[in-house]
Structures are given as structure tokens and as C-alpha cells.
Amino acid sequence: MCLGVPGKIVEIYEVGGLKMGKVDFGGVKREACLAYVPDVQVGDYTVIHVGFAISQLSEEEAMDTLRLLNEIADVEEELGLGPGERLDISG
Q: Domain range for residue 72?
């Protein structure tokens, strides 16, 4: 399973003709290509997948998604699941 994670754009610049930016994921900042979301501005939220911004979203949508991801992590921790282990919900 692949996961796109929301982050806040804190800086925009160009590298080799590509729109790039620094994206803040709750204090961890990473570089991402912003070419697929040409209208984003500093302060906007975007979903990042393998180093590429794939969609823009509102701050409310980003916060809701981050809350859900944190809840998933909390449940996995409570169940004692280690890295790579999954909860079987197939029935």
C-alpha cells in the first residue's frame, strides 16, 4: 500500500526548470516537486507521494487526514504491532 501524506508548503523555488518546494510535515521538512500542482502557494496544503505533490487540499482536510493517521498509529501501538505487521480486518 502506498500512502500520500499532507504537508504545508513553506517555501517555493525552481530547480532545473521544475517548480519545487519545502513541505513541512509537522516539523519535518522535505523537498517535493510541485509541478503537478502549479497553482499552490506558500501556506497551502498538498498531498505528497514519493516526493511529488499530487493534489492540493484545504487546511481542514489536511488536519482531518493527519488526525486519522495518528489514530491509526495509536491503534497499531496499542495492539503491539511492529513495523511491517498489519491488523487483519478481512473477516
A: 5-79
